[in-house]
Amino acid sequence: MAAVELYNDSNFRRKLVETNSDTPNVGNDVNDRVTSIVINQGTWRFFTDSQYRGVSADLGPGRYPNIGLGTIPNDSITSFRRIR
Prior knowledge:
By secondary structure, the chain is mainly beta. 0% of the residues lie in helices and 44% in strands. It has no helices and seven strands. Strands 2-1-3-6 form a four-stranded antiparallel β-sheet, with no helix packed on it. Strand 4 and strand 5 form a beta hairpin. The chain is globular, with a radius of gyration of 11 Å. The model has no long low-confidence stretch (mean pLDDT 96).
């Protein structure tokens, strides 16, 4: 099971990527497309810019069906890393 799962649409539709690794740049296919997230392990910090810059938000284990309700708007994640 991957520690992080990123989805294109709300309510975990259209999986974009699943990983256990820090990601300094999600790449063109994922950049600014994430709307929902599942955190299976650890606490992760998500950033609006590459190389862990820009606005950030920390998410621990859980299911986040619409990240637009939090600190980072929908479709704005570009990098992320595990912090715990």
